[in-house]
Design a protein that fits this description.
This protein has about 170 residues and is of the alpha/beta class. The chain is built from 6 helices and 11 strands. The protein has one domain: 4-Layer Sandwich (Metallo-beta-lactamase, Chain A).
Length: about 170
């Protein structure tokens, strides 16, 4: 029997005081019962799904967008989903992305990222194509502090930082 590797799937909640945003949504049910804890973790932090104003997707792989919907039902009823236009165009016809992002597309609740500009005050989108065609990062700035959210730009830092030409098989470019 093969061991299943441990994966790190991260979701970030940003509360600016005016906006409550998620950066990515994890895998939810797509990766089995051990990966679908986003709603429980939000509740433990004192947030309800309807309080989320926006979801900023770094890209539309299942481990980053799978927590948007379950069974075709959006989990964040008041959220607008932000993603790069090329990213949505590339993935929306595929079954898994259609099931997760599709309900937001169908409801008119997907907004395309500005070329390299502010999504909401203090949070700027940055194009970082390579992993996927519309892969994006988000720079959050507040009170002189900055944090960059970059889902899957590096997979094995010990190898890739020393040898940037080495990639994983699911890097598109």
């Amino acid at each position: 029997m093969l061991d299943t590797p441990d994966l790190s799937i991260n979701v970030y909640l940003l509360d600016t005081g005016k906006h409550r945003l998620l950066v990515d949504t994890g895998a939810s049910e797509l990766f089995g019962p051990s990966s679908g804890h986003l709603l429980a973790n939000l509740a433990a932090a004192g947030y309800r799904p309807e309080q989320i104003d926006a979801v900023l997707l770094t890209h539309i792989h299942g481990d980053h967008s799978g927590g948007l919907s379950i069974g075709g039902k959006p989990l964040f009823p008041n959220a607008v989903v932000y993603a790069d236009r090329k990213e949505v165009a590339h993935w929306i016809s595929q079954p898994a992305p259609k099931a997760t992002v599709g309900p937001y597309v169908d409801a008119g609740r997907v907004r395309y990222l500005p070329e390299s500009g502010e999504v909401v005050p203090g949070i700027t989108a940055r194009p970082v194509p390579g992993h996927t065609p519309g892969h994006s990062a988000y720079l959050a700035e507040s009170r002189g502090h900055r944090m960059l959210f970059w889902g899957d730009s590096v997979h094995v830092a010990e190898v890739q930082l020393a040898h940037p030409g080495i990639t994983v098989s699911y890097d598109e470019d």
